[in-house]
Amino acid sequence: MAQPLVLVSNRGPVSYEEDGSVKRGSGGLVTALTGLASHRDAIWIASAMTDGDVEQSSEHGGRAFEVAAPDGGTYHVRFVESDAEAYDRFYNIFANPMLWFIQHYLWDQSNAPDIRRHEVDAFDHGYQVVNRDLAAAVLEEIDGQDEPVVMVHDYQLYTLPAMVRAERPDVFLHHFVHIPWTQSDAWRVLPAGIRDELFHGLLANDIVGFHTRSYRRNFLQCCRDLLDLEVDMERGVVALDDREVWVRAYPLPIDYEATRAVARRDGVARFEEELRRRRREFQILRVDRADLSKNVLRGFTAFDIFLEQHPEFAERITFTAQLMPSRTDVPEYAEYLEKIEALVAVVNHRHGTPDWMPIDLKLRDDLEEAVASYKHYDVMMVNAMFDGMNLVAKEGPLVNERDGVSILSENTGAHEELGEFALSVNPFDVQELADAIYSALTMSAEGRARRASGLKEIVTSRDPGDWIDEQIADIRAKARGAAASA
Ligand code: F6P
């Protein structure tokens, strides 16, 4: 594979602020791909998401250019600008919330969604437009390449593979989905025509990858239930026309060396000083995008119950929640942030005292602050309702210095790997979560040490280089016509 690898995703590794400064892209996808894109000969095609990105893109004539990310690494990035209205429909209506909600079981189906012209237009004149724009950039980049390989990422780009395949039947397409794949009935929310376009778009790939075996199983079952296709569940193969699509699970590891390097930075040390100064006896921590799937409200409700049932912890504990505002133009997300702030006020009012604020809510995206907090928690809460992987569940235990206990939702992808050494919770059961807080805080030192070292061992056993190598090995095997194996 001497030719540059072509990666394509909606969010790129960096984005440009209004003042021209560069910010790292947020979320698990960027964390997953940054190592790959900075260490291999790769070109990363992404949507221009800010005015600054658009400006950079036009300064470079719409072509790829080199950019140094603030956290290190240089990338070859090509920003693709779409019509602003089309992009708004794509991002704020169809990808989020529609697909995101379907893939996290977030729709409260007796109330929403209503599928009106608004939603159908968002697909036809938004989602499809952005997929087409990015597909055109992919086609340009692979022009002249012999047997090109393109790695496509996530739910924003389900129809792009069919667009690329139509023009370049010889391309090898590998698509990784970073979020859960839900069971067939969750997809019945969508009109059949749209559903078919999405599935057939995705099935134009040679390989489709997920974080876990259970998402892989759900996807295969969907192909059977919704498209009536021939599926081999054992080998993970969907047969259609005269092709085979391999369906695989590649659990995403974190770049533990890079995370450890961040933990050693001076900026982190400065935050640690502040944390030590303000620290009570016990510290609970959560770090998340402010997303409905993360189940922030039930986390605070459980803490409320815990304080009610264990008044002996009053004034001795702080629950720090560092939440990054996300997708704030989507009404459901804006409303969610308001509910979070309101609930924090209620819990702090109910239990707080003049010099003790039980919940410390930090609405900001600051990697160094988050990593400083990782080092000092006693309990980390990851209680997502459903979550593709959840990398915080891996980053926290890696750098934590207090044998902190992880409370981990059984519906996160990370639970398949880490469940044995965490306190597993059903994310809907707030009493169980309150009990888990108590168990974590009162656990013996040996119990905490055993779990903490178990988590560290798992988290350092693979890195994103291994993750990519597994995918490249499958790409090579399939390209040379090997038979699929589970
Ligand atoms: O990993 C899931 C994901 O939605 C990515 O596709 C995305 O880049 C990230 O989370 C953050 O979301 P957004 O790009 O919408 O801010």
Element layout with pairings:
Blueprint: E1 5-9, E2 14-16, E3 22-24, H1 28-39, E4 42-47, H2 51-59, E5 65-68, E6 74-80, H3 84-102, H4 117-142, E7 149-153, H5 160-167, E8 172-176, H6 192-202, E9 207-210, H7 213-227, E10 230-232, E11 237-240, E12 243-249, H8 256-263, H9 266-278, E13 282-289, H10 296-309, E14 317-324, H11 331-351, E15 359-363, H12 367-376, E16 379-382, H13 392-399, E17 405-409, H14 415-418, E18 423-425, H15 430-442, H16 445-459, H17 464-479
Parallel strand pairs: 1-4, 1-7, 4-6, 7-8, 8-9, 9-12, 13-14, 13-16, 14-15, 16-17, 17-18
Antiparallel strand pairs: 2-3, 5-6, 10-11, 11-12
Helix pairs in contact: 3-4, 4-5, 9-12, 10-11, 10-15, 13-16
The structure holds 6-O-phosphono-beta-D-fructofuranose.
Structural summary, described in words:
The chain has 486 residues and is α/β, with parallel strands linked by helices. The protein is 46% helix and 18% strand. It is built from 17 helices and 18 strands. The protein has helices at residues 28-39, 51-59, 84-102, 117-142, 160-167, 192-202, 213-227, 256-263, 266-278, 296-309, 331-351, 367-376, 392-399, 415-418, 430-442, 445-459, 464-479, and strands spanning 5-9, 14-16, 22-24, 42-47, 65-68, 74-80, 149-153, 172-176, 207-210, 230-232, 237-240, 243-249, 282-289, 317-324, 359-363, 379-382, 405-409, 423-425. Strands 5-6-4-1-7-8-9-12-11-10 form a 10-stranded mixed sheet, with helices on both faces. Strand 5 (65-68) and strand 6 form a beta hairpin. Helix 4 (117-142) crosses helix 5 (160-167) and helix 13 packs across helix 16. The two termini are 25 Å apart. The mean pLDDT is 96. Bound molecules: 6-O-phosphono-beta-D-fructofuranose. Residues 11, 26-29, 154, 178-179, 326-327, 388 line the site of 6-O-phosphono-beta-D-fructofuranose.
